[in-house]
Design goal:
- It is a single chain.
- The chain is built from 12 helices and 8 strands.
- The protein is α/β, with parallel strands linked by helices and 301 residues long.
- An 8-stranded parallel beta barrel has the order 1-2-3-4-5-6-7-8, surrounded by 8 helices.
- Pfam families: HMGL-like (PF00682).
Length: 301
């Protein structure tokens, strides 16, 4: 079995850090990830810098990352101005978020879900003309920090509606880490059934220590792409108590032991996570750098 990993540490991982991160360190994080074999990286977000200050240097980051012809760099897009910036900066793919609940959508994007769908349709059409890979992410697909439970029927309806704009990929995001494997299986099956022309992708946070179980459930349900963040860093600035993503190295350990092919080498990811902890001034949440791979010597002291 083969699966693609998208490392989101440079974007989702760093966007919520309390202190500024140097542009050079962001570029180095991307470079190290490329060297480890990651070929899809969500590197930046083209959001207004007043909303997410840590992403204000998106153009500078993309100007400095390795361009090897194999690595695809994604930018998170919220509006037409963001797409204009992304096109000028040379992104390879865009990710547009449609939030499953109106309250969180207004907090996160300044519009309700209906307007989010309309924005996605408009941006998808423009991005298709530019030849970009187009991902639409349904955020809060497994639960909302403001409205609570999100009915599965609502998420399935959103899948059908965003599929009308012909995305290359539909991602289900557990933005606050409340999903469970049974629901993951049902919603991934819903993507495959309602949008058979789109690649199925999932984005999990490990807020309640179930992110890795959800990733394996998604794999069992036929997902083709999984997001992860080197070191397990990250969190949404607009979701209360949203903690880190599942860690790239911890997920890789599981996939490697299961015989799932990713093309990513685990040792340099561990080394990058340890380096990243130094940049951030605190150990990263991931566990593999402490425990080490098995069999073999500990990965880090």
């Amino acid at each position: 079995m083969e699966i693609t990993l998208v490392d989101v540490a440079p974007r989702d991982g760093l966007q919520n850090e309390p202190e500024p991160i140097a542009t050079a360190d962001k570029i180095e994080l991307v470079r190290r990830s490329v060297d480890a074999g990651l070929r899809r990286i969500e590197a930046v977000s083209f959001v207004h810098p007043d909303r997410v200050p840590r992403m204000a240097d998106a153009e500078a980051v993309l100007a400095g990352v390795p361009r090897d012809g194999e690595t695809s760099y994604a930018g998170l897009i919220f509006n037409d101005r963001g797409l204009d910036r992304a096109l000028a900066a040379g992104v390879d793919e865009i990710n547009v978020v449609v939030v499953a609940t109106d309250t969180f959508s207004r907090r996160n994007q300044g519009c309700d879900t209906e307007e989010g769908i309309a924005r996605w349709a408009r941006l998808a059409a423009r991005a298709a003309e530019a030849g970009l890979w187009r991902t639409v992410t349904i955020a809060a697909a497994f639960g909302c920090p403001f409205e609570g439970e999100v009915p599965e029927s609502r998420v399935l309806d959103l899948i059908s509606r965003v599929a009308e704009s012909r995305p290359d990929e539909i991602a289900l995001a557990d933005t606050i880490g409340v999903g469970t494997p049974d629901r993951v299986r049902r919603l991934v099956s819903g993507v495959r059934r309602r949008a058979p022309g789109a690649v199925a992708r999932c984005h999990f946070h490990n807020t309640r220590n179930i992110g890795y179980a959800n990733a394996i459930a998604a794999l069992d349900a036929g997902v083709q792409v999984l997001d992860a963040s080197t070191g397990g860093i990250g969190g949404c600035p607009f979701a209360p108590a949203a903690t880190g993503n599942i860690a790239t190295e911890d997920l890789l350990y599981t996939l490697d032991r299961m015989g799932v092919t990713t093309g990513v080498r685990i040792e340099p990811v561990i080394e990058t996570a340890n380096w990243l902890g130094g940049v951030l001034g605190a150990p990263v949440p991931a566990l593999l750098g402490r425990a080490g791979v098995f069999p073999g010597a500990p990965a880090a002291s």
